Amino acid sequence: MPRGHYASQAEFVTQDKNAQRSRLSIKRGLMISFDSSTYTANVLVMEATSAYLDSVPVATNMDGTSAISNAPCAVLFFDEQNTNDAVVIAVYPNSTEGYPSPPPGRTTFVAGYQQINASTINSGVTSTFTLTGGSSGIPNGALGVLYKAYFTSATVGAYIQLAPHAASDITAYGSFGNIQVANAYVNGNGVLQIDSSGKIDIKANGGNCTVTLYTHGYIF
């Protein structure tokens, strides 16, 4: 059989795959810097050569929260002889580097669920509610929730504040109001952090408030 000819398509495919395997390689490196405008990184390749590579493409499943400077990374070389033909496919932590802080979150939508039903909170009082678990669709370990809420009050000017449980400054988080007509309703919605136990605090201000709250998604 003349050189360059294959007995079958299967033989051609097999030899082509073997050739690809011989060229492909994955090496460990350090993420030196990440450029979100070009989605490239400068990388120090650790194995053998300790080569410093500029403008290596980065897989688009990563972003600035995960492409952390000095974090270990995995670099896929499509051709081991061509360092320009590569892509950073993963960034991962080691014992001391590479942990995102604060941790990045992913938003997931779930069916709307009534968490609080016409709960009266007296003026100046802070009430605590657990939003995770049960039939809520909000899993334990969630970082925050998407919520819709409304309240009513007999006192003009009343408003409510919402925060993760035991926040040092409840005024630094969510709030809505003020009631402009006695016994009217005020509606609000937003994203709210929850504590590690899945709890939030709601405080009534300026008058007793009757609060209803639903969740319809979470950040994990």
Description:
This protein is mostly beta strands. The protein contains one helix and 13 strands; from the N terminus they run αβββββββββββββ. The strands form three sheets. A five-stranded antiparallel β-sheet has the order 3-2-1-4-5. It has a four-stranded antiparallel β-sheet with strand order 6-13-8-11, with no helix packed on it. Strand 4 and strand 5 form a beta hairpin. The chain is elongated and about 75 Å long.
Outline the secondary-structure elements.
Blueprint: H1 9-23, E1 25-35, E2 40-45, E3 52-57, E4 72-77, E5 86-91, E6 107-121, E7 126-130, E8 144-152, E9 159-164, E10 174-177, E11 185-193, E12 199-205, E13 209-219
Antiparallel strand pairs: 1-2, 1-4, 2-3, 4-5, 6-13, 7-12, 8-11, 8-13, 9-10, 9-12
Number of domains: 2
Order of helices and strands: HEEEEEEEEEEEEE
CATH class category name of the largest domain: Mainly Beta
**Architecture of the largest domain, CATH level 2?**
Sandwich
DSSP E strands, number? 13
Output the structural class.
mainly beta
Features:
five-stranded antiparallel sheet; Jelly Rolls; disordered N terminus; OB fold (Dihydrolipoamide Acetyltransferase, E2P); 220 residues; 1 helix; 2 domains; four-stranded antiparallel sheet; mainly beta; 13 strands
Nutshell version of this structure?
The chain has 220 residues and is mostly beta strands. It is 7% helix and 46% strand.
